[in-house]
Amino acid sequence: MMEDEKFASRDDKDINDICTTLFEAYLRQSRLGTKEERTMWEEKAKSLLTSRQLPIDTTLLLSHLASFSEGTRIVRERASLQIDIFRSYTAKQNTRAAIQALHEYGPNEPDLYILALAYFCSDKKIMKEAGDELLVVLKKIEDDKLLTPLQIVQALSGTGVANLGVVKGFLAETIEKERRDIENVWLLLGRD
Fold it and tell me: I need a labelling partner for 166 at 20 to 30 A (CA). Which of 12, 72, 93, 154 fits?
């Protein structure tokens, strides 16, 4: 029985090696062909990535070297590297993709909201692209107590990008909430 397990293990390794080589060949072909051919080869590579458990380090490196961003994303997701996925979008200043990643991974990776706040406030163009998403992020950070109000104000005002309206609006809302909380405590204590 031990001999059968040894062969099965070797066969699995051989199959993984063959599939990794095939993945690399697909990516090589995608770089050589026309746009339509590139799409076809990348789809084949993507299919191979999603259907087999190929070695993460090798496929991540090959995807990166071939500028196969979809492959990089799939490998990182499989390795639970959602923060890296988000950071790769922000490094490319792809705000739309960063927001999508935030919506997809944020509920399981709360630190993404803090990274999103820093990213949205890093540049006027990015802040404009983010639009109301900045307010959504602020609310999530405050509701989940990911940062203190002071830390949020420091993050907003420290960049020089967030305008006074954003900071002022956040502060007014925070102060009003704190005032209501204090009133509720006084009511519970039976004092007016």
Answer: 93
Taking only the tens place, the pLDDT of each residue in 21-55 is: 888 898 889 888 888 888 899 899 888 888 777 77
Each residue of 112-152: pLDDT tens digit? 898 899 899 888 899 889 988 988 998 898 888 888 877 88
What pTM was computed for the model?
Answer: 0.59
Half-sphere exposure of 28 (CA within 13 A, CB side): 6
Rg (CA), the chain: 24
Q: Report which of 169, 132, 174, 172 is spatially closest to residue 149, judged by C-alpha positions.
A: 174
Same structural domain for residues 32 and 64?
yes
In terms of domains, do 116 and 150 share one? yes
CB-CB contact of 174 with 142 (8 Å):
yes
Show the tokens assigned to 129. 């692209």
Q: Are residues 170 and 142 in the same domain?
A: yes
Token pair of 102 as six digits = 């935030």
